[in-house]
Amino acid sequence: MEHPGLIKIAMHGGTPCDARDSSSSSSGDSALVEPVARWIDAVLTDHVETAGGPVRRVACMYSMAPDEDFVIDFLGGEFGKDVVVGAGFSGHGFKMAPAVGRILAEMAMDGEARTAAEAGVELGFFRIGRFVDNPKGNLKDSAEDEA
């Protein structure tokens, strides 16, 4: 355990950065810390000590697909169903690891994802091919959303 006795609570946000530039950081950015601190006080006060505020403030960089959705698919092409891809978890993959791990393992072992099918999850939403005709994938333009 990295920090015994502590829990990690984070906000998805911040300024996009270039991962190749290690000088880029929003660590301690009060614009991100304050909303999280208010949420902790409102929701977790009866469960954790909140009086001292955050113990650590750390910026976490993570990769993101353009639409912020996972990629769960077979590589296809000459490999067919021999190669399974799980990527682009956009900062929220860790909490999905048990379910996504099971789905990827079933795809690798059996060529299909029974768990997803039984849960009614349509994996087409997560296919690599969604970027072929639209580099934004599942992301909708705000003008489309209003129509």
From TrEMBL:
The keyword Oxidoreductase applies. It comes from the Eukaryota. Residues 13-107 form the FAD dependent oxidoreductase domain. Pfam families: DAO. One of its GO terms (molecular function) is sarcosine oxidase activity. Keywords: FAD, Flavoprotein, Oxidoreductase. Gene3D superfamilies: D-Amino Acid Oxidase, subunit A, domain 2, FAD/NAD(P)-binding domain. Its cofactor is FAD. Belongs to the MSOX/MTOX family. This is FAD dependent oxidoreductase domain-containing protein.
